[in-house]
User: Fold Imidazolonepropionase from Gillisia lutea.
Amino acid sequence: MKLLFINIKELLQVRETSIEKLSGKEMKSLPSLNNAWLLVDNKTIIDYGSMDNLPELEVDETIDATGKMIMPTWCDSHTHLVYAGNRELEFGQRIKGMTYEEIASKGGGILNSAKTLQETSEEVIYEQSVVRLEEVMRLGTGAIEIKSGYGLTKEAELKMLRVIKKLKENYTLPIKATFLGAHALPSEYKEKKVEYIDYVINEILPEVAAQGLAEYIDIFCEKGYFTVEDTQKLLAAGKKYGLKPKIHVNQFNAIGGVQTGIENDALSVDHLEEMRPEDINSLKNSTTMPVALPGCSLFLSIPYTPGRKMIDAGLPLALATDFNPGSCPSGNMNLVVSLACIKMNLTPEEAINAATINGAYAMELSKTHGSITKGKIANLIVTKPIPSYTYLPYSFGSNNIDSVYINGKKLK
Ligand code: NIG
Ligand code: FE
Assistant:
């Protein structure tokens, strides 16, 4: 099936050669082509060019994109999209003045979601997750990472990971699975944190690995959750099974998780709302991608990741949603890109780069996704007619998406 898009007002994120990731300096530019055509053969981007030089091509379908932009789909490298139920009651409590920490300390928060998930059947969790996945795909997400971490028992963690596996089997966008058994301390293990970490390492992790249920390993490295020592121990164990780290660090407190991640060759360190100068310095010359989650900052009214400062220091940056029931019940990457511009002072070019190619890197997908490059997979966003790409973050809350293509096929 050959598709030819013609009269594209602007083709965005056009990269002639495949690149791994963009540094802060490289993020400043967003290469694009005005008045363009784009040729897709089955799943693959074959060619593109200017309408002034449109070759004679035999195709199955020609799509007129007059006034519209085409760009790679969003690469959302951090989500907890598989969960059961919701936490809107806690949202109400927070509006009335309780903090996220207070709610968690009273057995709400992650433990609340874990209880619901444990009591919900695999089929129902799958059905609820499908609704979310299809929603974010319609919003332009064409590659996604999904974590476990609302199970907190061997049985329930494996159940979550099997749901992710089923999503992988039934949907054509790339999905990466992360094992987050160390997300919070279950109440049965109160005052027995070492025992819980050992349970995760000795009982759950070997089974996750044996069944091939995860690519990555994660831990919530935070005061009141897990220490850098716990993190070190877990990441070392994960390494034995070939699971690379992608970890939650510096959300409320900077306690050294960034450095532990880098020392363990983490693919990414995520959250980073609290960054010390030494955290920024440690990330220089590392292969670890820093990932900001501005939807979480918005929803919890906590500081935004100092993305401007990090990019100015030369660091790369990726943007992701953190889609989860407690700290960011939205998987909308368009909103994330707007927030990055409005609240983190990223330019539209930087934000779009962070949400595409650098997000792809944070899932080891930048060879195949994240840019309009010959040979890459045709996961595309076609926008509605818009005046410029700056209009995307500017018109926050509007849906500017006309259609989404995954593997060269239009989503219904
Ligand atoms: O990334 N910080 C840890 N985990 C999630 C939120 C979990 C929850 O509240 O359910 C996050 O923000
Ligand atoms: Fe998260």
